[in-house]
Amino acid sequence: MTSINFDELFDEAEGLLEAGDYKSALVLYDRIEKADDHHIPTMGRVKALWALGYVKEAAEHYNKFVGLYPFDDMVSDFANFVVKLTQEKPMRLYSCFISYSTEDENFASRLYNDLQASGINCWKWNHDARTGRDLWAEITDAIRKHEKVVLIASQYSLSSPAVNKEIERAVQLEEERERKKLNGQYYGDTNVIFPVSLDDYIFTGWDGARKSDIIRKVVADAREWLSEPSKYLDLVKKLLRDLRRD
Question: Which residues lie closer than 8 Å to 4 by C-beta, 6 or more apart?
Fold first, then answer.
């Protein structure tokens, strides 16, 4: 049986990936993993699957890395690849305001960093609010200037008076856009809020004044995002798709 030189094959696959020949790269990564007695997954195969649009398969393969490599290194490596794809194929993306409770800081920061790295202009208060300005004036101004509001919907955020105030501002902006569209004064997308659930509280426990306005929307599922990396990967993919202008 002819032995396989893994180093040469891997270098060739990496070269094809770098050159954008994702189909050929995927064929080689498949050969590498099948020939490896331990079947250790390669991040290159995840990237090739993603670039070719096989999102479910990419997410499933990505999940195999849990416990093998540091999670932050995995996310950073993959985010850098997404940046490269974005630069090769520039997308027209909506800007967004991130609404969240500081109790969800880890998730909010990771999402902010990954969306920014993917070319989306995001506003997050502890990064972007200007020193010395009135905080609520800054928030109101940012909601109006950014086209979408990504609402990180958890029990913490939906129990926060500050977040509920941001929700009110965002819903008012949707209503204003809808009125203007009816009068021929606005021609863009009237949807503002993109809810992302970290738990079931938005459906089972929240009684906020704007609940009906939020739960009539499609709510992205990020429950178990930390223990199941594929869920987080899938969420970022969906947001990149849905924050793309038609």
Answer: 31, 32, 35
Query: In the structure, what pLDDT confidence band is assigned to residue 1 with cuts at 50, 70 and 90?
Result: very low
pLDDT at 2 over 60: no
Q: Would you tell me how many other CB atoms lie within 10 Å of the CB of residue 101?
A: 19
Residue type, 73: D
Helix (H), strand (E) counts: the chain = 13, 5
Give the pLDDT mean for 4-19.
77
Is the pTM for the entire model greater than 0.70?
A: no
Q: Is the dihedral of CA 93, 125, 84, 107 positive or negative?
A: negative
What domains does the chain contain, in order, with CATH numbers? 6-88 (1.25.40.10), 96-242 (3.40.50.10140)
**Is residue 145 a contact partner of residue 195, using CB atoms and an 8 Å limit?**
no
Question: Is beta strand 96-99 parallel, antiparallel or unpaired with respect to 122-123?
Answer: parallel
Is residue 122 classed as helix, strand or coil in its secondary structure? strand
Q: Cα separations (Å) of 42 from 12, 24, 134, 226?
A: 14, 15, 49, 21
Q: Which residue has the higher pLDDT, 148 or 38?
A: 148
Name which residue leads in pLDDT, 96 or 74.
Answer: 96
Residues 6+ apart with CB under 8 A from 149: 96, 97, 98, 99, 143, 166, 170, 192, 193, 194
Helix (H/G/I), strand (E/B), else coil: 186:
coil
